[in-house]
Amino acid sequence: MTDRIQRGSLQVAAQLDALVAEQIIPGTGVDVDQFWAGLEACLAELGPVNKALLAKRDTLQQQIDDYHNERKGQ
Predict the structure, then answer these.
(1) What is the DSSP track for 2-63?
(2) Which of 16, 23, 54, 63 has the most CB atoms in a 10 Å sphere around its CB?
(3) What does the pLDDT look like over 12-62, one tens digit per residue?
(4) Gap between the Cα atoms of 67 and 74, Å rounded
(5) If you ran DSSP here, which 8-state letter would residue 71 be given?
(6) Chain-centre distance of CA 51, in angstroms?
(7) Hey, how many other C-beta atoms are within 10 angstroms of the C-beta on 12?
(8) Vertex 34, ends 29 and 35: CA angle to 5°?
């Protein structure tokens, strides 16, 4: 089972948290807590947009599938 670290409302795999803290953040001038807070804010803002886009994609794919199924053998 993967160990998890709590970062705000996010549960992050311990290996990912270590990667960010030890290899990605150093030298950027960004604090680790700022990074996770920023990611959390992005997910909160863009998560619903992404969900709506995925629903639209599913609708479009179903229309494409229906179109081709109706024209099989033509």
Answers:
(1) --EEEETTEEEEHHHHHHIIIIISTTS---HHHHHHHHHHHHHHHHHHHHHHHHHHHHHHHH
(2) 16
(3) 999 999 999 999 999 999 999 999 999 999 999 999 999 999 999 999 999
(4) 12
(5) T
(6) 10
(7) 19
(8) 80
